[in-house]
Design a protein that fits this description.
Order of helices and strands: EEEEEEEEEEEEEEEEEEEEEEEEEE
Distance between the termini: 34 Å
CATH class of the largest domain: Mainly Beta
Number of helices: 0
CATH architecture of the largest domain: 3 Solenoid
CATH superfamily of the largest domain: Hexapeptide repeat proteins
Number of domains: 2
Strand order of the largest sheet: 1-4-7-10-13-16-19-21-22-23
Largest sheet: 10 strands, mixed
Strand content: 25-35%
Structural class: mainly beta
Radius of gyration: 19 Å
Number of strands: 26
Helix content: under 10%
Amino acid sequence: MAVHPTAIIDPGVTIGRQTAIWDHVHIRHSTHIGEECIIGEKTYIAYDVVVGDRVKINAFVYICTGVTIERGVMIAAGTVFTNDRFPRATTADFRQLLPSEPDEDTLRTRVREGATIGAQATIAGGITIGRFAMIGMGSVVTHDVPDFVLVIGNPARPAGYVCSCGRPLYPNGERLTQGDVQTDCAACGARFSIRGLRVAELARQLR
C-alpha cells in the first residue's frame, strides 16, 4: 500500500494491499478500498463506499455515500456520482441547514465488474451500471445500463455494444440490433449472444 503524504484517510477506512492513493485524495470513514487499486489525485470518496479489487479511479472523481464499485472498474477523470433524491440545502423556511448524513431518501448505486465510466460523466443515484458496460465521456446517466452496452449523451442512451476487452461489437455490421444474433469480437475472439439490449458472453477463444 502506498499513500501520498498529502492524502487524508479518515479513521475506520480499510485499504487493500498494493493499492496506491495519490496526492490530496480524501477518503471518509468506514469506506473499504480493495487490493491493487489506484486512487487518482484530488479524488473524494465519501463514507461507507465500497470499492472492489483492481479498480482504477482517476483524478478529480467525486464518489458519494451509497456507491458500490465492483472489481475491475475504471472511472475516468472528473466523474461525479450523486445520491440525493430531493436535494435541498435548508428547510423550506430557511431556518435550518439540512444534515448531510444519509437517510431514507439516499439513493444507492452499483457499478458492476469490468465497467468503464468515461471522463466527466455524471451518474444519477439509484441506478446500476452493468458488467463491462461503457459510459461515454461527458454522459449524464439517469437509468440502468445493461451489461456490455455503450451509452452516450445527455441523457445517456444506448449507442452500441462493447466486448469485455473494451473493443466495440458490430453484430451484422450494425451498432444496435433488435433481433437474436451471435457475434465475435474481432480483437479477442469472445463470442456473444445479443438480443436488443440483452447481451451475454458465450465463450472466449484465445488469439
